[in-house]
Amino acid sequence: MQKRLPFFSFLLLLCNLTAQAQDMARVRQTITDLAAPALHGRGYAFKGDSLAANYLQSQYAAIGLRSFTPNYRQNFTLPVNILDNRLQLEIDGKALVPGVDFIAHGSTGAGAGEGKVYDIDTLILKDIDVAQQFLTNNLRNKVLVVHQRHFRELLALPEPFQPQLRSVAAVLVRNPGPKLMGTIGREQLPFPVLEILEKAWPAKAKKIKFAVDARLEPAYQSQNLVGYLPGKVKPDSFVVVTAHYDHLGHQGKDLYFPGAHDNASGTAMLLELARWYAQPQNTPDYSIAFMAFAGEEAGLVGSRYYTEHPLFPLANIKFLLNLDLMSTGEEGLMVVNGSVFSEQFAVLQQLNQQHKFLPQLKSRGKAANSDHYFFSEKGVPSFFFYTLGGTTTEYHHPQDKPDTLPLTKFKEVMALIQAFVMTL
């Protein structure tokens, strides 16, 4: 039989929540702080991730979270491609705007210069005779132009083609749009790679001028931030709330990705939950840990490191809730792993129907798309929540700014989480 949250308990929960945890002005300020230029997009250029970690450390301390480690930090290293100086592109003498007309590929190599446009014949990827002709062409001082759909195939050309490919001045990838999306690279290609929107590409482009500064840091040190509140009944058992605080950082010294929706919004919710549970009247039966991960945008690096170096046994985790993209919700909430942990999803669904938090809950299966993944792969019951609907800002784009976030169902998602934790 499914548990029902007693109405009186729920009423107390909702009143407490309204009074203590849903200062939306504070939520917006937290998002604004995390997405501010001073934190450099919480990436690796200009140590944006470390500056964000300092901010979270001060928040954890002010809330009163306990720590397993000095200053809540769990350090780890990762390889990362850092773009922190020049990012320029001209086509036939016209300067293009970084972040609007073009961006760099996350794994771009460094380089500067100019070259003639060389539109690649995509038959080299399929026809051996055309491929042989490609091998005989002199590509020095040429900028190879390729459509986005063929870029991976180009990089995957067999070894006889690789010296020829490495000889190009740069590669330009034509993106059909409607927008550009930044990425983090953990390796570096042997040539500069810029991605340009199709609508910014001149019909008869002839000459390209470019400058890209990039350096590969093979062992960049980053950090997870982990704090907890002890439970009053079973302190050795944990409910865990996670969110990644990192984002894409800089491309060039002037262009940065604020990452308000992704994932300052989830990080702000993590902090609000921590504030609520830190109130003596809200102490849960189980201990509750708050884990803010770095390296998510680089491939779930921080959360994977945590599961390989846990600060308490993973078997002691009763349930984990991962928060990412918490800015909308007018169309409800997606629950990744909902079909994997169907009994817990049924409880979640019942709570939502009973108290009408959200229009709907949707369920997905297993997906390696956020920081819950390596926990659930190691047997930890885990959900990943992200909100649905609305104008969800510019994902992985420089326009992912705090003032674009509606935060439509932020309060209701929090109330659902708290009701679910109470049933545990």
Describe the 3D structure.
The chain is α/β, with parallel strands linked by helices. The model is unreliable at 1-8 and 17-21 (pLDDT under 50). The strands form three sheets. Strands 1, 2, 11, 12, 15, 16, 17, 18 and 19 form a nine-stranded mixed sheet that branches. The protein has an eight-stranded mixed sheet with strand order 4-3-10-6-7-8-9-5. α2 crosses α7 (260-277) and α9 crosses α11. It has eleven helices and 19 strands.
What fraction of residues sit in β-strands?
Answer: 25-35%
Count of beta strands: 19
Radius of gyration in whole Å, from Cα? 24 Å
Low-confidence parts: 1-8, 17-21
Helix proportion: 25-40%
List the helices and strands and how they pair.
Elements: H1 7-20, H2 24-34, H3 48-63, E1 66-67, E2 73-82, E3 87-91, E4 94-95, E5 102-104, E6 111-119, H4 128-136, E7 142-147, H5 148-155, H6 162-166, E8 170-175, E9 193-197, E10 207-212, E11 215-229, E12 234-244, E13 249-251, E14 255-257, H7 260-277, E15 286-293, H8 301-308, E16 317-323, E17 333-336, H9 342-355, E18 361-364, H10 373-377, E19 382-387, H11 410-423
Parallel strand pairs: 6-7, 7-8, 8-9, 12-15, 12-16, 16-19, 17-18
Antiparallel strand pairs: 1-11, 2-11, 3-4, 3-10, 5-9, 6-10, 11-15, 13-14, 17-19
